[in-house]
Specification:
The protein is of the alpha/beta class. The protein folds into two domains: about 120 residues, Enolase-like, domain 1 (2-Layer Sandwich); about 220 residues, TIM Barrel (Alpha-Beta Barrel). The chain has 13 helices and twelve strands. The structure holds magnesium ion (MG).
Amino acid sequence: MEISRIEIKTYKVPLSEPVEAFAAGVMKAFDLVVCQIFNDNNDSGIGYISVHENQGLAIASIIKNSFIPILLKKDPRLIELHWKNMWKATHYAGRGAPVSFAIAAVDVALWDLKGKLLKEPLWRILGGHDKNVLAYAGNIDLNFTIEKLLDGASQSLDDGFRSIKMRLGKEFLSEDLKRLDAMKNHLPENVKLMADANEAWRIDQAVHAFKEIEKFNLVWLEEPIKPDDFNGYAYLRSLGKIPIAAGENLHTLAEVNNLISVNGVDFLEPDLTTCGGITPFMKIAKLAEINNLPICSHGVHELHVHLLASCPNASYLEFHAWRIDEFIESPLIVNNGYTIAPDLPGHGINFDFDKLNQYILD
Ligand SMILES: [Mg+2]
């Protein structure tokens, strides 16, 4: 068996309403890069990544120029080999994003193809643990008024979630505290709350914020400081105030290993699109397991549901604001706080390309 054809398409998908995070500012759209890999029997697998707008074409270009030539005519089932060769081909400009995004799109397509060839869903191929996956809604944003914030939380509860995340990082901590207070009072007792500061604070600000926020009993406080200040993470965690979540901005296995090694994280939440795909995500999940840490996820929930369903140390699946629900058959649904990994072969995601094509860039 060999890879006979690889097709790359890039889309700019508008968000139904703008969202804001401290680190990125206001976001009105995201780019979606879709990679379809065919074998010589015309079986195919689909991989995709989502990224901030105006970056998709650069990532697609890495796949087209650097990866397609080294993948054609090779056995698509040798995923570790292809991962190693893609890394090697781009390591000088890469060792992380955006190369990791490009590798991820290919890696997911190869895993999807493998699942389809084996007629098994990814979550069983990757280990098979529990297809019921704990989920939380991560779509409550910094630019929303308190009223809109609470309406969004109510909508998430109506949608079946029992855990909700809100963003922090307003100009003054007093504003964040007011929003947290309103949310805590709004949510029923049995609903869990997380918060995400999206790298908003310096260490001294974070130390102060942790003291003030501790009383809200958050499940976690995510990315309080810059993602690569590993010593800072270790210090904040040593205070023992609030569990810390991080991982979405780590682009290599080595970076994740460094954060774990300094005891800088409680809830590890890598993103397969930012760290190089399913292959490294599963290694991160095992690394977390060895270190007695839970594994969560960031972004692309319809892919991550398979990964968390395969892990004995699975914790929360994030339902991200960048959703592709309207472009796929059977988007995930949530019931009483859980969603279910599908039993279809591969990842089981079928795109409506006719609908998606209105947003095509290349
Ligand atoms: Mg985050």
